[in-house]
Amino acid sequence: MATDPYDLITMGRIGVDLYPLQTGVPLARVETFGKFLGGSPANVAVAAARLGRRTALITRTGADPFGAYLHQELRAFGVDDRWVTPVEAYPTPLTFCEIFPPDDFPLYFYRQPKAPDLEIHPHELDLAAVADARVFWMTGTGLSAEPSRTSTLAALAARSGGASPGEVSPGGVSPGGASPDGARGAGPAGYAAAPDGRITVFDLDWRPMFWSGADEARPHYAAALRHATVAVGNVDECEIATGEREPYAAARALLDAGVRLAVVKRGPGGVLAMTADGRTADVPPVPVEVVNGLGAGDAFGGALCHGLLAGWDPATAVRYANAAGALVASRLACSSAMPFPDEVAALLAGTPAAARAEGGRP
Question: What is the per-residue DSSP string for 182-242?
Fold first, then answer.
């Protein structure tokens, strides 16, 4: 039914990615670019939609042709764009990158004088829909400026303020759930959810160019963590949020800050997941030949949401998310590279999936 709660609502950054169609070439010498939907929350919504989830995005674009392009792409990927609105005063952001595999992918953000996705106002939010969503995903960048900061915290407060969560059963489900074979499972993983069964994810998403420094960010991160049930970040982001860089110490600090599941991404070292009920999963990476590492974290995020919604245990959910991220790292683009369920299952099984061109639609 159209009135059912969304599986996932994400909130925050969106823009156009202009990625070189040449690798190992500095930006000054690149001659051809590909145009793609970009922005971490947008990509997370696309990633979850590719896995069969009903998703929506809260953000803003410029009132320009690039904004129209982003609406077009969101709809084509199956992401509801009803809460993506134009801002007359600011252009749609652009992001360029350089591609030097396996681990050097500099980003260049063009978000001046201000990005429209930071112009989300509290009165524009559909707080009932936000409160009702089975998973809500927000980012650290959304806290970096007003009015986005107040709006993001208002959305988080709606999640933890006691609103009735639609069709989500209190307490989630048992720690098990379906295996990652495309089945959805019975319901959200209880170890990552609030008592009412809803999951609220804080993507720590530390982008230093959007802040004056770490000291400015830390109190706002702490305020958001009080509302979140899941925190996801790499070691640099965890250090901003907690002051801890060692993965186990950072995970414990995130749990102490109030979340029920802490996910610490360690690059070549894999991913550490730790729960408030005492479970730990230390999952190795999935080896692939890296083409472009940008977007792998967004694929990880969308797949993690999928696994948590299916009720998978922490190790299974993170292993699946790792595989989704690895597939995107082996491809050029971000949004159009997000994998379908058969591709993730094939990688986990060690068998080749049927080839799909990047940009293929469901």
Answer: S---SS-BGGGS-TTS-EEEEE----GGGSS-HHHHHHHHHHHHTT-SEEEEEHHHHHHHH
Q: 273's torsion region: left (phi>0), alpha (psi -120 to 50) or beta?
A: beta
Indicate the Cα dihedral angle 76, 82, 87, 92, nearest 10°. Answer: -20
Judged by DSSP in three states, 203 sits in strand
Contact 48, 307 (CB under 8 A): no
| pLDDT for 193 beyond 90 | yes
The two three-digit tokens of residue 149, written as one number: 């900061």
AA identity, residue 190: G
CB 29 within 8 A of CB 59: no
Angle between helix axes 214-225 and 148-160 (nearest 10 degrees) is 20
Instruction: Give the type of residue at 358.
Output: E
Query: Residue 132 is inside which H or E element, if any?
Result: helix 127-132
DSSP letter for each residue of 81-103: EEEEEEETTSPPPEEEE--BTTT
Cβ atoms of residues 56 and 69 within 8 Å:
no
Q: Given this model, what pLDDT does residue 187 score?
A: 76
CB of 296 within 8 A of CB of 257? no
pLDDT of residue 267: 85
Phi, psi angle pair for 183, to nearest 5°: -70, 150
Report H helices in 226-362: 235-242, 247-256, 296-309, 314-329, 341-349
306, 258, 172, 187: CA torsion to nearest 10: 0
For residue 116, is the peptide bond before it cis, meaning its omega torsion is within 30 degrees of 0?
A: no
pTM given for the model: 0.91
Residues 6+ apart with CB under 8 A from 47: 298, 299, 301, 302, 303, 324, 338, 339
Helix (H, G, I), strand (E, B) or coil at 282: strand
Percent of all residues in the chain with a pLDDT value above 90, rounded to a whole number:
81
Say whether the peptide bond before residue 113 is cis (omega within 30 degrees of 0).
yes
Q: Are 300 and 292 spatial neighbours (Cβ–Cβ below 8 Å)? A: no
What are 152's two structure tokens? 């993001």
Give percent helix, percent strand, percent coil of the chain, each to the nearest 5: 35, 20, 40
